[in-house]
């Protein structure tokens, strides 16, 4: 008897949900999960008895005006978000742009056919300083900055120990095949080498993160510094992809080189983080030299100094009329900063001999 009454109540709950919110079906509703998934409250009605005067109070998401199927309580998570409700929209799917949804006094953007997060919380619309909408998803406005191009570009680390000499000559030996392969194509060289340059910061940050968790100790800020370095190198790649489109065999080369370099650097960092950072410091010195040669090619007219990619203008806050030469200059300054950070990490007492 109780089971039959419960099933009737479930069907009535589903019917009310569909009629009130235009939803074809209510997810996760069954007689066994009804109690923990819905608030059931008595409601005063103009009827002589209150034995059946219970209405289901739906747990609505943060933005209740969004066209979506309402999931029940937050603690009942599933592996897939609820499907959005179908809308009577004759606009073709390919022509649907970002739709504006007003929530109180705040405007938010969502895709016309999708919700951007599991809980239905739409990300806040971000704008540039001039008020125009922010169009990039690979970085946010607070990650942009004005580069310091006054940094000393001629600085090099003098070899003092035998490990310094090993790191120095190892990097010099790696430059030989690079020069033979790329020759004077510095735009392609920059794009391809940035796929490798972002590896040391990520490997170091990851291993220091694990070390901090194992030993219950602070990293002294090195985790964040190294991960920011890796992200900065990745943005270099995103920029040069707009300048030189990689060919299929160059993409295949990235798979091979990155796979070998990642595992080799990972093992080296496990043995000695300081030697690994010394090698990275010398790699950055070579990067500074390569970008200096790139600038000479532009100044001599061997490479067209076209307009800077829009992603570079927004990331480094460059002027609207910035050129490729301006981009190379700020990237070279970034590499010089990475050079100093890694050479300092090689002698930092916060980085022990082993992770």
UniProtKB/TrEMBL annotation:
Superkingdom assignment: Eukaryota
Compartments, record wording: Mitochondrion inner membrane
Co-factor requirement: Fe cation
Database matches in Gene3D superfamilies: Alternative oxidase (1.20.1260.140)
Cofactor note text: Binds 2 iron ions per subunit.
Keyword vocabulary terms for this entry: Electron transport, Iron, Membrane, Metal-binding, Oxidoreductase, Respiratory chain, Transmembrane, Transmembrane helix, Transport
Cytoplasm recorded as keyword: no
Entry's EC annotation: 1.10.3.11
Topology in membrane: Multi-pass membrane protein
GO molecular function terms attached to this record: alternative oxidase activity; metal ion binding; superoxide-generating NADPH oxidase activity; ubiquinol:oxygen oxidoreductase activity
Annotated catalysed reactions: 2 a ubiquinol + O2 = 2 a ubiquinone + 2 H2O
Short name of any one Pfam family annotated for the protein: AOX
A GO cellular component annotation in the UniProt record: mitochondrial inner membrane
InterPro entries on file: AOX (IPR002680), AOX_sf (IPR038659)
TM stretches of this protein: 252-271
Subunit architecture: Homodimer; disulfide-linked.
Annotated family: Belongs to the alternative oxidase family.
Protein name: Ubiquinol oxidase
Organism field: Physcomitrium patens (Spreading-leaved earth moss)
Biological classification of the source: Eukaryota, Viridiplantae, Streptophyta, Embryophyta, Bryophyta
């Amino acid at each position: 008897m109780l089971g039959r009454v419960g099933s009737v109540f479930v069907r009535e709950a589903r019917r009310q949900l569909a009629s009130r919110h235009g939803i074809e079906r209510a997810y996760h509703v069954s007689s066994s999960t009804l109690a923990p998934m819905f608030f059931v409250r008595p409601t005063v009605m103009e009827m002589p008895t209150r034995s059946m005067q219970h209405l289901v109070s739906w747990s609505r998401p943060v933005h209740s005006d969004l066209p979506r199927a309402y999931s029940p309580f937050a603690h009942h998570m599933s592996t897939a978000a609820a499907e959005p409700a179908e809308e009577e929209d004759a606009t073709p799917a390919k022509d649907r742009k970002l739709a504006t949804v007003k929530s109180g006094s705040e405007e938010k953007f969502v895709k016309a056919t999708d919700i951007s997060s599991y809980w239905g919380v739409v990300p806040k619309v971000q704008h540039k300083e001039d008020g125009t909408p922010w169009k990039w998803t690979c970085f946010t406005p607070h990650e942009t900055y004005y580069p310091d191009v006054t940094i000393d570009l001629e600085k090099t680390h003098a070899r003092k120990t035998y490990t310094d000499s090993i790191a120095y000559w190892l990097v010099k030996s790696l430059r030989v095949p690079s020069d033979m392969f790329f020759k004077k194509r510095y735009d392609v060289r920059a794009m391809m080498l940035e796929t490798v340059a972002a590896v040391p910061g990520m490997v170091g940050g990851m291993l220091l993160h694990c070390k901090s968790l194992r030993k219950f100790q602070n990293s002294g800020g090195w985790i964040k510094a190294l991960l920011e370095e890796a992200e900065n190198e990745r943005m270099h790649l995103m920029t040069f992809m707009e300048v030189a489109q990689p060919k299929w065999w160059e993409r295949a080369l990235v798979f091979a080189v990155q796979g070998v370099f990642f595992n080799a650097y990972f093992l080296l960092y496990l043995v000695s983080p300081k030697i690994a950072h010394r090698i990275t410091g010398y790699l950055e010195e070579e990067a500074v030299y390569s970008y200096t040669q790139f600038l000479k090619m532009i100044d001599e007219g061997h490479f067209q100094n076209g307009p800077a990619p829009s992603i570079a203008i927004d990331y480094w806050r460059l002027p609207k009329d910035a050129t490729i030469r301006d981009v190379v200059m700020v990237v070279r300054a970034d590499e010089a900063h990475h050079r100093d950070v890694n050479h300092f990490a090689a002698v930092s007492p916060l980085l022990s001999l082993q992770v």
